[in-house]
Amino acid sequence: MVRRSTTSALTRAYARNLRALTKVTFGAGKRAAAQWQQAAVQQNKPPPGPGDWLSGMAVGPAGARRYHLYRPPGLTLAPGEKLPLLVMLHGCGQTGRDLAASSRMNRLATRERFLVLYPEQDRMVNPHGCWNWYDTRSGKARAEAATLMAAVDQVCLFHPVDRDRIAVAGLSAGASMAVLMATHYPGRFKAVAMHSGVAPGAAQSPATALGAMRGKRTPVVSVTAVGKALGAAAVGASLPPLLVLHGDADSVVTLGNASDTAAVWATATGARPGVLRTMQRGKRHPMRVLDFTRDGRTLVRLCEICGLGHAWSGGTARQAFSDPAGPDASKLVWAFVAKQFAPAR
Predict the structure, then answer these.
(1) pLDDT tens digit at each of 345 positions of the chain
(2) If I label 236, which of 27, 104, 133, 319 is the partner at 20 to 30 A Cα–Cα?
(3) Measured between alpha carbons, how far is 190 from 240 in angstroms, rounded to an integer?
(4) Which residues are within 8 A (CB) of 81 and not within 5 positions of it... i.e. 6 or more apart?
């Protein structure tokens, strides 16, 4: 009987395992590449509806960020005419296309004649697609805000944008980044809308972000604390008017963040609260509305929506982070923004 070498048997076993591992690895690599390619195709696919879905990329201190610009169909401009621009920042687990489809903001832009910019978070920077609004201690949040401003500047350079009529809005992490951008660049925005976001100054690092979302890191509302919460750029500056939208059934970001944000913003702008009122349209969720005014002008509007979870209020059905039963947040945002765009009387 011929005995087989143990070494040879181990070598052959190792070779078989290596071939199997190589096959699995390359197979997984191909599948991953296919998934990335499919995701890229889906990301570039225009959301439902007419109009142009233009792709671009901006480079700033945080690296490169892709974006899409929505341009209404059949747009004919008078000589020298410029259009308003609304910057829409998506939430975690979303893309700009997702937010466009959910909010149907493009449909409103077509009717009201304005452009919509949808920046995209890089999944290599944040695997969940979240904007890094919370990482203020390391400077990453500020760098990302500056990169988003580079995208705004690029769109203003290549498209007929009225630089005096720019506003920023966002959902969840996008909402938190929207208020961060407004505090660092208060002169660049006429208005800001925060839907289900976290109070500014409530988190300074990834470790404190979750606690802030759960309302465990409430910023202290005082004149001295406001400057610290909003950042040095906002101190002594004229902050743009703020619209805060939040559901009282939100289990991801605690409702208290909405009132905290309104209080911090009101303190910074010298606005005082008015009378709380309840509003409801048809069978949609009712909402409690509180305006903070100064010299007859609403500088902060807080809308707490009854029964709304962590979702875009009044959004398209069958979309993630979207609740069609709520009041139309897109209409609320545009109505608030358009009022700030109107010439002062």
Answers:
(1) 333 344 455 456 545 654 654 554 455 455 544 544 555 556 678 888 889 999 999 999 999 999 999 999 999 999 999 999 999 999 999 999 999 999 999 999 999 999 999 999 999 999 999 999 999 889 999 999 999 999 999 999 999 999 999 999 999 999 999 999 999 999 999 999 999 999 888 888 988 998 889 887 555 444 444 555 565 455 545 899 999 999 999 999 999 999 999 999 999 999 999 999 999 988 899 999 999 999 999 999 999 999 999 999 999 998 999 999 999 999 999 999 999 998 765
(2) 133
(3) 5
(4) 160
Residue 289 is inside which H or E element, if any?
strand 287-294
Between CA 220 and CA 187 the distance in angstroms is: 25
CA angle 302, 241, 162 (to 5 degrees): 135
Q: Which residues pair with 322 in a beta bridge?
A: 312
Query: Phi and psi (nearest 5°) for 163?
Result: -65, -15
Question: How many CA atoms are closer than 13 Å to the CA of 100, on its beta-carbon side?
Answer: 31
CA angle 256, 134, 148 (to 5 degrees): 115
One-letter identity of residue 61: P
Beta bridge partners of 318: none
Q: Write the single-letter amino acid at 276.
A: L
Answer yes or no: are the C-beta atoms of 35 and 27 closer than 8 Å: no
Question: How far, in Å, CA of 329 to CA of 169, rounded?
Answer: 11
Say which amino acid occupies 175: A
Instruction: Provide the 3-class DSSP secondary structure of residue 117.
Output: strand
pTM of the model: 0.85
